[in-house]
Amino acid sequence: MSLRKYMVKIMNSYLLLSFWESIFEYPEIFIWPILASILVGVLAPLIGSVIVIKRLSFIADTLSHFSLAGITFGALLGHILSDTIFSGLSPVIMGIIFSVSGTFIIEKLRGFYKNYKELSMPIVMSLGAALTGIFIALNHGSTANMTNSLLFGSIFTIKPFDLWIILGMGIAIIAFTAIYYKKIISLCFDETFARISGIRVKALQLSITIILAVFISTTMQMFGVLLIASLMIVPIAASILIGKSFKNTIIIAIVFSEISVLLGIYFSYVFSLPSGSIIVVINVLILFIVMIVNNLIQMNIKHKSKNVDTKDNPLIKENIVLETETSITVTTKDIETVVNNKEKTPNE
Questions:
Q1: 189 and 94 share a domain?
Q2: Which one, of 311, 301, 303, 332, lies nearest residue 320 by Cα?
Q3: Taking the CB of the first residue and of the last residue of the chain, which one, N or C, has fewer CB atoms within 10 A?
Q4: How many CA atoms lie within 13 A of 183 on its CB side?
């Protein structure tokens, strides 16, 4: 082993040891973010699976932008009411209120544009982005760090209270999924059948959207408005390429999500980079790896199917010989015809 490789190995071992030592030395800084991230790694693909199959991927971005307007409004209220009993009001609460109200606005706009239902989402998103800019400008106490945190998130700002909120939300989401699992599958794959079967389609869709809105609002401080949607979509995009069933796809997506979360936290600690951004980059890398491996497997299958062994199959061998001879004969006749025509032309 060369000296350079040996030094790299020692450095990697030291960084890994240092990371684990930091976890136990400063549990209030590391334990809560890690536990919260593991929970989010399970919940994000669970919600994202329904969003992707229903082709509503864009709604996650829409609600995150509208929720951001609520959080900035909550921060503005906290600044204005700093001398009152509402000074300690969490901006996340206003984020949840805005996000849930955004779902009702989307549904209302979808009713107006029955043939262009997708128009509702860019309208709500642009409104959320505009309100965010206004509230940040009005809040003179806001800083560049606050804006950066809202856009890209910061996992290490998680506190025990935030963890309990995420845990409670996780229990509610898992319970809802377990109770309405069959109805959710019917809604995802055949909405007409679900409606004929007596399922209240609109109520179920609205419930799923509200759950999505609450999830986005509570986890936005961890991953930011620009990254939270990708955490739900990208693991499903990777698992859907290799999943054999709906349940299998969700399980694979959760595995991919947990790998990216844990590696993202480690690399963000080692290189002092935003954890949310690293997690999303790892998610996308996993997606690319799955795409490449899946493509190589498909190419290998096609190659094997074409390379049929003809040595012990006289019928296939005879057919190939006949086809070859026929093609040569036809080609020779064509050449002779062309030559004869050229020879006859001067005489005429």
A1: yes
A2: 311
A3: C
A4: 18
What is the per-residue pLDDT across 61-87, written as a single tens digit (0 to 9) for each? 888 888 888 888 888 887 777 776 666
Domain that holds residue 154: 3-233
| Helix segments in 272-307, DSSP class H | 275-306
User: Which uninterrupted H or E stretch holds 204?
Assistant: helix 201-223
Alpha helices per DSSP H over 26-90: 27-53, 57-80
Residue 190 lies in a domain: yes
Q: Show the tokens assigned to 106.
A: 């989307």
Residues 152/25, Cβ–Cβ less than 8 Å: no
Contact present, 23 and 30 (Cβ < 8 Å): yes
**Which residues have C-beta within 8 Å of that of residue 285, sequence separation ≥ 6?**
none
Backbone angles phi, psi at 84, to 5 degrees: -115, 180
Out of 217, 233, 249, a domain closes at 233
Number of domains observed in the structure of the chain: 2
Residue type, 98: F
- For the packed helices 275-306 and 27-53, what is the interaxial angle rounded to 10 degrees? 50
- Among the candidates 199, 233, 267, a domain finishes at 233
State the pLDDT confidence band at 94, using cuts at 50, 70 and 90: confident
Give percent helix, percent strand, percent coil of the chain, each to the nearest 5.
85, 0, 15
